[in-house]
Amino acid sequence: MAKYDPLYKYLSESGQPVVRLTFKEVADLVGGLPKSASIHQAW
Predict the structure, then answer these.
(1) pLDDT at res. 9
(2) What pTM does this model have?
(3) The pLDDT value given to residue 25
(4) 3-state secondary structure of 34
(5) What pLDDT score does 14 carry?
(6) What spatial distance separates the first Cα and last Cα of the chain, rounded to whole Å?
(7) Closest CA to 33 of 13, 10, 9, 6
(8) What does 1-43 look like in DSSP terms, one character per residue?
(9) What is the distance between the alpha carbons of residues 37 and 17, in angstroms, rounded to a whole number?
(10) Strand, helix or coil at 22?
């Protein structure tokens, strides 16, 4: 299983055209985000 598969599954099973998640919610789904996610605005 790839790191972001749980996020993909969550989004695809939501049935919603738009899903809003906090960085913490995304991090929890994927087992943590890279440090650059909290440093670089592009994230």
Answers:
(1) 97
(2) 0.75
(3) 96
(4) coil
(5) 97
(6) 23
(7) 6
(8) --TTHHHHHHHHHH--S-----HHHHHHHHT---THHHH-TT-
(9) 24
(10) coil
Contacts of 37 (CB under 8 A, 6+ apart): 23, 27, 43
Q: What one-letter code names the amino acid at 36?
A: S
User: Among 12, 40, 1, 13, which residue's Cα sits nearest to residue 23?
Assistant: 40
Q: Which of 37, 34, 29, 32 is nearest to 13 (CA)?
A: 29
Dig out the tokens for 17 from the structure.
Answer: 């055209």
Question: Which tens digit of pLDDT belongs to each residue from 1-43?
Answer: 798 999 999 999 999 999 999 989 999 999 998 889 889 888 7
Give me the torsion for CA of 33, 19, 9, 7, rounded to 10°. Answer: 0
Nearest-angstrom CA–CA distance, 27 and 31: 6
